[in-house]
Amino acid sequence: MAVIELQGIKRHYKLEGIMVRALRGLDFSAEAGEFVSVMGPSGSGKSTLMNILGCLDKPDEGIYRLDGIETSSSDSDTFAFIRNQKIGFVFQAFNLLARTTALENVELPLFYSRRGKGSRYPRERAAAALQEVGLGDRLNHLPSQLSGGQQQRVAIARAMVTDPAFILADEPTGNLDTEMSLEIMGLFQNLNNQGKTIVMVTHEPELAAYTKRVITLRDGELVSDMPVTERQNAAEDLAKRRGGMKPEGVLSREFGA
Fold first, then answer.
1. Count of CB atoms within 10 A of residue 77's CB?
2. Confidence band (pLDDT; 50, 70, 90) for 233?
3. What does the alpha-carbon distance between residue 125 and residue 127 come to, in Å, rounded to a whole number?
4. How many whole angstroms from its chain centre is CA 170?
5. 40-76 per-position pLDDT tens digit
6. In three state form, how does the secondary structure of the chain look?
7. Which of 5, 112, 208, 257 is 20 to 30 A away from residue 41, measured at CA?
8. Cβ contact 14:20 at 8 Å
9. 3 located within any domain
């Protein structure tokens, strides 16, 4: 079943009186359980596509169905509901509340969701999400007490807590060093192995190699859509960087290392 379906998506902007055609009739779909990376040079339309996929913007033309819902004609309330219930966002900058614990940061989306309001145990759900990303012992830590990689894990737990249709990650390792980047990619691989659908925007081919499929944009058009035939394993690569040591924490548990 297709979680994401885009048909004939066009998005135009006026910039200083000049018409910019950011997307020019884009067709794209992603099935449940896929892990797709979106690549392309600056100005290719990646950010515009991400905004439309995340229901942060609407196309000028075309149809976007998300988990069976036609979003293009949705009113503002439905649009907000779709963003909260159907999409888990992971950004480069983490976007955690500085004076709020990891547990409270992850719990926050449940206060705005219909599902969360109907749940008797939002704190337990948030704690379970943190446990899943290997931070069960960091529930009451503030972001300033966590490493960059741990902060991104909190952001991923926050994205997962509403059980969205898919996770949309925008350059999720952009603020991390190589080792922490591998930890995050390993976490994404594990979530995908559990059936989570993930779309990741990146400009790094090295990161795209950890996904299952790569689409490439250029000048607002889809110019390539290919499976990753030689997919890399983040846990194994992390172990090599550590001199043959087994990956620690969440990766060692989840990948059976």
1. 8
2. very high
3. 5
4. 6
5. 999 999 999 999 999 999 999 999 999 999 998 888 8
6. CEEEEEEEEEEEEEECCEEEEEEEEEEEEEECCCEEEEECCCCCCHHHHHHHHCCCCCCCEEEEEECCEECCCCCHHHHHHHHHHHEEEEECCCCCCCCCCHHHHHHHHHHCCHHHHHCCCHHHHHHHHHHHCCCCCCCCCCHHHCCHHHHHHHHHHHHHCCCCCEEEEECCCCCCCHHHHHHHHHHHHHHHHCCCCEEEECCCHHHHCCCCEEEEEECCEEEEEEECCCCCCHHHHHHHHCCCCCCCHHHHHHHCC
7. 5
8. yes
9. no
**Which CATH number goes with the domain that contains 221?**
3.40.50.300
Determine, yes or no, domain membership for 114.
yes
- Asked if residue 70 belongs to a domain, the reply is no
Residue 224 sits in which domain range? 33-60+76-255
Q: Strand 213-218 and strand 221-227: pairing?
A: antiparallel
Q: Which residue has the tokens 């909260």?
A: 84
pLDDT of 169 over the 80 cut:
yes
Structure tokens at 150: 């741990």
Specify the number of domains making up the chain.
Answer: 1
Model confidence, pTM: 0.90
**What was the pLDDT predicted at 246?**
53
Query: What is the rounded distance in angstroms from the CA atom of residue 187 to the CA atom of residue 229?
Result: 20
Tokens of 219: 């000048």
In a domain, 141, yes or no: yes
Contact by Cβ (8 Å): 228, 65: no
